[in-house]
User: What shape does this take?
Amino acid sequence: VGAGGYLYSRLVTCETCGKQMTCDGSTYVFVSKRSGKESKHQNIRCAGCRRTLSFNLLREMLEDAFVELDEVVSAQGNDYVTQSGDHDTVAIEQTITKLQGEQKATAKSLERAHRAYTDGLMDYKTYKAQIKRLQAQEAQQGEQLTVLRSRLMAVRTRQARSSEIVALADVAVAMLDHKDVRAANAWLREYWEVTFTADREIEVRLK
Assistant: This one.
């Protein structure tokens, strides 16, 4: 047992009852019907329905998921982060700047229209038509800016997530042998979602 208890405790969720599964350190002996050989396995047991799964099998599934993530990140190198939207970010920022300039120009046009009308340089019919057109234009520019700012935020969030995944890939396998089990469990639960399905399959997903 490492510092902080047993590895994988409360990492796995049982799909059958929704409870978390814990590793209590107990073992059971499995006797192969074919060979007659005995082998010892640690139990990870559901706190609700009491289903169990093999500690060793869970470790193998986690290692496979971590290695696969590392291979994907390594194969793409620096492109893994940059392809998440660097070019999109620049284009969106440029469009936002352009729209902001157009929005300011529209505001100035509205001011000029108001001044022209109050100074008696524009008749009421022309004034009303121009104000209606400029206000519609201003509203459309505002809506476009809202959409673009939301899109920019989404791209930046995706970039941050990609950077985080690169960092996770660098340490994932090593965390399985971390001396501080409490720290390892906290890391696993924060970034990974593991489910023991009703069909006794183990599903490992990055959160």
